Amino acid sequence: MEVRVLIEEIEKLKKEKNAVILAHNYQIPEIQDVADYVGDSLALSRKAAETKADTIVFCGVHFMAESAKILSPNKKVLLPVLDAGCPMADMIDAEQLKVFKKEYQDVAVVCYVNSSAEVKAESDICVTSSNAVKIVRSLESERILFIPDQNLGNYISKMVPEKEIISWEGFCITHHRVRHNEIDMVRKHRGDTKILVHPECNPAVVEKADFVGSTSQIIDYVRESQDKKFIIGTEMGILHSLRKENPDKKFHLLSPSLVCYNMKKTSLEDVYKVLKDEKNEINVERAVIDKAYKSLEKMLKLS
Question: Are residues 167 and 181 in the same domain?
């Protein structure tokens, strides 16, 4: 089917089924363009909670669709590609977390939204990379277990030194691949061009960057900056939004390794099929939803 026809069919099915399409910033350009909302985890979590649609088509990875289901348990949530997962989310499970909680009962568990529904259910509160520092700073507990991303945990620890942050040893395989010598090379060849990186990058990379922030924070920084050239240190999908919004500015990727293959699995054909057939529905046990909802709800209130 031609791209033009596919898009027309998607729009038609969306109206017929009162569906909304949410797409993460890391999705391919065609998916971002056909989506009703494009954003980072926090923005899409809010849209999932607010939408009046009967069906949510989540163009992202599995934990994102689960989060949408938790926030909208009475809606149908569809994931176009079922095996679009997140290796970092798989680096911790609920049983491991339960064991840790028994050993350290005085620790508040702060869960990065990049985690399974079951892990969220065992956590005190969720965060995204946009709001993690603010939320951790606001908590009464002096000791925090941050799961599952050690790099974001390290960044929070530096930004909130008054708290003791214990970081789980997980990481994003895409951001973690970037090396600090890549920043050195960029500095050498591109002079004073600002380098903007995601806090999921390892500490040596974060330390050398000009700005550290979530995808939405990077987009906001570029929008407000007078600079005309930027080096982007997060998944390459964000370049599409940056170029659309800032046609007069130039963007270069910090590292060729900044490609999340799971985020790139979804095609327009997948979106069309999942709307047409309504397969790949994401379901979460009611008991898990009830517990996980509390951790996500706390996050949204504090955000």
Answer: no
| Residue 66: alpha-carbon gap to chain centroid | 13
Cis preceding linkage at 148, omega within 30? yes
Q: Which among 211, 198, 205 is positioned nearest to 180, based on CA atoms?
A: 205
Structure tokens at 160: 């909130």
DSSP for 202-215?
Answer: -HHHHHH-SEE--H
Token pair in block for residue 50: 């607010």
| Residue 118 Cα to chain centre, angstroms | 18
**Domain extent at residue 137:** 89-173+291-302
156-204: pLDDT as tens digits:
999 999 999 999 999 999 999 999 999 999 999 888 899 999 999 999 9
What are the φ/ψ torsions at residue 196 (nearest 5 degrees)? -115, 125
Domain containing residue 230: CATH number: 3.40.50.10800
235: which DSSP letter?
Answer: -
Shared domain for 185 and 150, answered yes or no, is: no
Enter the pTM of the model.
0.94
For the record, the structure tokens of 113 come out as 């939204």
CB 175 within 8 A of CB 155: no
pLDDT tens per residue, range 11-35: 999 999 999 999 999 999 999 999 9
Rounded Cα distance, 247 and 5, in Å = 27
